[in-house]
């Protein structure tokens, strides 16, 4: 099999696309972070987040907030 110039161009373009997508910032980097206070550090299970972040609780979620339970998928923990 001979390796033609178009093949090389294709390989280079494919690598650029894969590399570019890998470098895109994760949305997690831009969402509000989980505060690094003792309240939040004590919580290790995502299902416990809604004891405070629920409609009648201490800190309700905004009305537009996604109705998903995998909180830490979108909210990174703040360093501290
Ligand atoms: C004991 C109650 C409580 C629990 C449990 C709790 N939070 Fe919170 N959370 C708060 C309060 C109160 C605030 C707002 C004041 C503050 O910054 O600490 C807050 C603020 C936040 C914020 C917003 C920070 C900002 O910059 O506006 C995020 C994100 C958050 N919590 C995520 C979580 C996640 C994810 C969990 C589960 C791992 C969780 N919380 C569990 C009480 C709680
Ligand atoms: C699909 C991604 C996603 C998931 C999953 C998610 N959130 Fe959020 N959350 C966001 C975004 C985006 C914002 C910022 C919304 C805004 O500023 O209007 C936010 C904002 C918040 C805030 C700040 C609200 C405020 O008072 O300013 C808290 C607290 C919070 N989320 C808690 C949680 C908890 C608890 C869970 C799990 C039950 C969770 N989030 C799951 C994307 C997500």
TrEMBL record:
Domain of life per record: Bacteria
InterPro entries: Multihaem_cyt_sf
Listed name of the protein: Cytochrome c family protein
């Amino acid at each position: 099999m001979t390796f033609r110039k178009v093949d090389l161009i294709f390989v280079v373009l494919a690598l650029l696309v894969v590399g570019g997508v890998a470098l895109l910032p994760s949305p997690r980097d831009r969402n509000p972070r989980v505060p690094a206070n003792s309240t939040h550090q004590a919580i290790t299970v995502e299902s416990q987040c809604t004891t405070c972040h629920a409609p009648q609780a201490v800190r309700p979620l905004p009305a537009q907030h996604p109705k998903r339970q995998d909180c830490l998928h979108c909210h990174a923990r703040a360093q501290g």
